[in-house]
Amino acid sequence: MPAARPRASFEPIPPDFDVRTFVETADNFQYADRISYEMIANNGIEQFEKLVLLHVIIGGKPLVIDGFEQVLDPWPFTPSWLRGNMGDKPENARNLSSKSNIPLTIKHYLKNMSKLTEQFFEDAERYRDKTRQRVYLKDIDCPDVWRKKVKEHIPPGLFYLNESTGEIGGPGALDEPGGRKGRGIGRAGDLMSSLPPEMRAENLMCYIGHEGTYTPAHREMCASLGQNIMVHASTTVGEDGKPERPGSSLWFMTESKDRHLVAEYWLSTLGHDIEVENHFAQLIAWKKAPFKTYVVEQRTGDFILIPPLAPHQVWNRGTRTMKVAWNRTTVETLEMAMDEALPASRIVCRDEQYKNKAIVYYTLLKYSNLIKIARAQSELGGDQEEMIHRSLKIRHVQRDFKRLFDLYKNILLSEMFAPEAQHGREHPELLPFDGNVTCAYCRCNIFNRFLTCKSCKNLYSEDIEEPYDVCMDCYCMGRSCGCQSGYTWVEQWRWKDLMHRYEEWRAQIVEIDGHITEKTPLPLQEERRYFSKKTLAQVCQEQLKIRPFVDIKNPNPANGESEEDEPQIDANGYPKPAKKKSKQWLSKHKSCHVCLHRHPKWKMAFCTNCDYAYCYGTLFRAHDTMPLAIMEDPAWKCPHCKRICNTGKCRSDPRQNSYEPKGTLLGHDTRKVADPRSVECLVDFSVSNLNWVREEDVAMENRRAAAERAKLANPEFDDRYMDLDHDQDRNGITYSPVHENGDFEGHMNGANGSGLPRASDDPWNESSLYPDPDPNAEIPRLGKRNREDEGEENNTSRKKKKNKPKKSKDDTPQRLEPKSTSGKQYQKEVQRKLLEEAKRKDQFILVAARMKGKSKIVKLRLDSDLLEAIQNRPVLERPAPDQERESSDEPEDDTGNILQSDLMAARKPVVTPAQKEKAQKTFRVRVNNDETYSTRKRNPEANLPGKPGRPGQRKSRFEEITIDSEEDDDFVNGYGGPGTGRSTGRTSTWLARKNEGEEDLPTELPEDFRDGLINPNREKNIERNRIRNQQLAERRKSMPSKPTAKVRPPGAGRPRKSTSALPDAIGADEDEDGVGEDDDTGEALLLAQSAAAALEAQRKAEAEKARAAAAEKEAQENLRAKMGIAEVYFGGSDEESLTGFINTLAAEDEPLAHERAESSSSPAANEPPLQSTNSIFSKPGMEGKKIKIVSKRSGDGATKTATTTTVTAPLTGFTAVNKKASKAINVSDSESDSEDEIPAKAPAPKRPVGRPPGRPSLVPTRGTSSGRGRGRPRGRPRKSG
């Protein structure tokens, strides 16, 4: 199991933390070295590249380059630009408190950064609350504009995916199209650029964080070089004028040469593994660390270079920080990755995203071509040959080519099979290389050869094949699928092609050196002969033969026996005697010399010098030996033969010097990240070695001594550095601002190097709310509780004895007293919170007495009169105290509501039954137009004209009425009724839209709008309208009859004014007969219906029913009369239509006398009056005849009404004014288009309407309007936004 020791907990950094005081009061702290941006231009790019190599890569120290804020364009890096150009881009922000992702947009995150920051400044101790939201927008893609702007000013060799550091027109430059010189030969700044674009790892990322966000202690992936530049940070005032917190980032960095010491300190003292990247070390932990820590406060324009394999962590401060970061791969980092970084990542199953072995191969291809170009140009002679021979950049390419070839040679040696005489010839399956094959267990990238299991490829589904691919390193460690054996070989490159590349590149190295030296590589077969160990592929071949195949469908056969039987217990609790093992079982198993358990022999390591056998788990934990190191050694000797065995029996032997592990192993359960089919059959890597570590300080001291020896080496004498320019003046850049005596130079950022205001000389400044941690304090840890010591001052004296408190019957055991200052501070904070909680629960005295160890009974001496008065007081009802502070209604205490996803639907809050009763209800009701609150031309689209074949549609208006559920009864009975208890308002959406922006105008209807109190003349207006409607109805009886709408062919007619429609007769302006009624009648009926009382409404309803029945009967009679006239006129001909009959009778007549009088007295309309061009009354033989015109109206309900108008034809005709044919025939008693006219619209039918032969009566065939839109099918899909 993993380590059970206490682990250091997460301790946030205070918001007003003083960096200067913290650094200057500790011996192991130092500011990182800084140089300015101008110094690079003054000393040249070559000197700067040499500085990076000596100081950062070989020396392993961080370097800061400041001043980029003076040359970077500030506008693209502002929140306004990011919000406007990338605001809608969805990203996954990391909630560091809950270890979860929040999908949101960038603009949503930027909008809430101030709230996320201010939550830590509300209270002095608020920053300690570990449940507060710490949302970090990290690892997001860098915008292209940012990339271009940063690339303009960063030195080319340090930027992302740099392909060449050669100069334009330099040695080896080729001519480009257009006559321009290309870039000269030079090594790549980032070897990732050698890969094909589809294989590259995109690691140019952006990081946006607020106060309290952080990056745990970690090392850069695959030992790469880290670059980080801050492009924007908040100031005291934001872009919107609101106050903000100044932004910066605190970096705690270490040296590369201290990496083993840092890792051991993390494991043994803090209880965490630096490779897992899940712990942010406390300030106290950094102060007590046995290594030097470099501190950087990064501000806008600071460019930080991070050494390879150097652990570091980052803490963001202020409202906002924006950074751009990327990684680079060089030859030096590739060597570190192959030797150290990849094996360490394989243990914890960390992804290998950089494809290091593929980078080696493709970079060799690139450099080989460059060397060929340089060779070809040098053969031409002249000045070009001399420039190439003197060029340092070409010599750097040749040096890197040799070092890369050594890595390539080691890759091929590890993949070579054993001689055919030993294991036969293998026939691997060929799978073309695409860079996407990864190990199913450790998730590393596989370059060429690997093992695959096809027995369990259909374990998940019979239809989906998923082979189990495992790298050779994991298989030698005992990691595989449940089958354990039966694997087949697969290769991604033909072996002969790789061998051909090897010989070609080896010949180039011989050509570069000019002759064969001791370092000249040999042919691959010769290198294999001098290789003293077994190759990795050969070890896999041997393990495939000895490991048994396990059928995953039947893993435990019936006749098989387990490796170690569990002890059986009888009914009395005594162990039963174990069954005697068979000889066959004993012959296949062997007892371990250390753990004494019997294991299968294929799981044991046998010594070649004695008959002892060790299990691989014991060798890994007790002797720091990996299984591969044992398997590849053909003459392996056991610890007993090496005289380092640490068993109890061997320790008694004076010749034995027991081995102690050099480091701490906490163990990692990798089953969560590996393929579910994976097993560990040799070593359980989740078990710690703490049982074998006797003295932790010994391992720490060994690591420290090794680090000190590494620091003594001069970087200039390192094999990775080659000074070829012979220039003794290499001190042009003084990159170290710290002298040997520790004094800080004045060219640092500010007087203290951090940019912060100076604090007082007292390191423990009590004016700060957050004092610096005590360097001698103990680190707070998870699972370890610290207690308060009342006698804090007496702890320093050992002579003074403390009196033990006497135990009472009801007292619990006394708490342990804390031994450190931090423990006492922590205990005080715990007690303070407990007392505050006790006050809310009315238990303060009880809890306080419990803390002090005193009695729970409190005696109060009161006077008898006062006691009696207290007892006679009435008992007040008090609400129950809150059980949890987190359930408060204050929004600032609910940390989960500060920032939520704007892409996912918000969770519906839980509504209690009491809240449901008080919840508001919204009703949607039809709105009846009222003349008092409306104008005539308010909605011109209310009555739309009908189209051919379709009647016009009258739109209804609705309003939403919000009513509290306590007034539901009042809403049913009426508005503003008695017993409501409060005023009932009806929200009007129309009034709100109309009066928008006007503060003095109402936005809702008054409570008594139906009682007529808002308008004193409302009752008079209603009565006047009723009398007027009656007069209009009587006058229609004496008006000329109107023809039906079907009697004319379709034509262009002037549309009439639209009025509001009845709520129950939508689209009834044009009925089946095509005759429209006066809109004023409908409006009058609407006003009467809305204003009349319940009794009057009932009376009118009964009268309406009677009138409807009479009108229906009269309509039938009129229809029969018209059909009779048509039959007489046609004379039995079916070809003529009723329209033709009326057209032949049409004639022009003068208007009647009373019509002229009414037209002269009526108000003028906006447009000239529309007159009939061919009235039916002007036809011959129509003088004095009476014609009945029936209009039929059908509503939403079952009730139908009909209106009959009898008109007597005038004796004289009236003059035609409009000769144009129209769709409508207007029959009116006046010439003006006033409210009294009765227009009739009739959309023309598509075909003549007549009575077919044999049909007894003429029935209208045109259908009414449907509720769906014109031409819209029912199944029409909705367009996506």
Automatic annotation (TrEMBL):
Pfam families named in the record: JmjC, zf-4CXXC_R1
Basic residues bias locations: 797-807, 1269-1281
Statement: the UniProt record of this protein carries the keyword Transcription regulation: yes
InterPro entries on file: JmjC_dom, Znf-4CXXC_R1
Domain JmjC residues, every copy: 177-345
Bias type Basic and acidic residues, positions: 720-730, 808-818, 875-888, 1007-1026
Keywords in alphabetical order: Coiled coil, Nucleus, Transcription, Transcription regulation
Compositionally skewed regions (Acidic residues) per UniProt: 961-971, 997-1006, 1067-1082
Localization terms from the record: Nucleus
Gene Ontology cellular-component annotations: nucleus
Coiled coil is among the record's keywords: yes
Annotated region (Disordered), positions in chain: 551-582, 720-830, 870-1087, 1149-1281
Superkingdom per UniProt: Eukaryota
Low complexity compositional bias, start-end: 1159-1169, 1198-1216
Coiled coil: 1092-1121
Protein name from the UniProt record: JmjC domain-containing protein
Organism: Karstenula rhodostoma CBS 690.94
